[in-house]
Write a structure and sequence with these properties.
Elements: H1 11-20, H2 29-42, E1 45-51, H3 77-87, E2 90-97, H4 99-109, E3 118-123, H5 130-135, E4 145-149, E5 152-154, H6 158-168, E6 172-178, E7 188-192, E8 195-200, E9 210-218, H7 235-245, E10 249-253, E11 258-260, H8 264-274
Parallel strand pairs: 1-2, 1-4, 2-3, 6-10
Antiparallel strand pairs: 4-9, 5-11, 6-9, 7-8
Length: about 280
Amino acid sequence: MKDRVSITLDRNVLAEVDKRVDGIYIRSRSDAIEKILRENVVDAKTAVILAGGSPEKLILKGSDVYRPLVSIGKKSLIEDIVYKCREAGFSNIVVVGFPAVVSKLYETLGNGNKYGVSIVYIEEDKALGSAKSLERARKYLKTDFLFVPCDHWFDFDLKKLGDFHRMNGGVATLAVHSKTSFDWNTSIVEMDGYKIVSYEEFPKKPKTHLVSMLIGFMKLEALDKIPPGEISWSLQENVFPKLAKEGVLMGYPIAGEWVNVHSRKDADKVVELSKR
């Protein structure tokens, strides 16, 4: 049952509403306004930025700066990630990390208002693995959510990744990058169509050039694969391999650049790629 309401909109806002009307899925201004409100109020989407683990391991090599705070031109890496989350429709962002890291990220990001998002910070006190870091955000998650590492730069569309996830029905969907050589020996996957049939974090001998980027989407049920209590548990070594064996882990082949920023050389590479 729907109630009828009357509203007054700025002409420019109304023009943006009209852009949503396609005559097929969205037939009228009312449909468009309802969809916008549902996306941004009722079903506001949440992204989790993983900044967990020992703070010392997040330091950029040869410096005293945390990797997510390294400058990549006119903004920091973490700001670039937040902007990309917002552009993909994620108005709620949860950042998980140790207090030393979280406090530094807060100095830059604040509550997220200046980026058009709302940011919540969660502190962890033990390095128990990426899965346990993610688990801490559980109470803020109501439906399928995006997860992104704090030190990865990428230039592909997160919205398209999310659309793929919803269309293909996986419990989790990972962005997969095709390398041209075996120069990256972690998070190696084998795929059958779009389904990831094997996930190996440290394979003795890589079987493919396909690399999971630790960027993706999950249904809430994926968190059930994380045992309770103070036990070390990793997405890469525990959760993803199990989901692959169960046939519910999907891979989205991305076209674009991706840099796992660990050094100043990596950051300089991002600056150059950003200019293209």
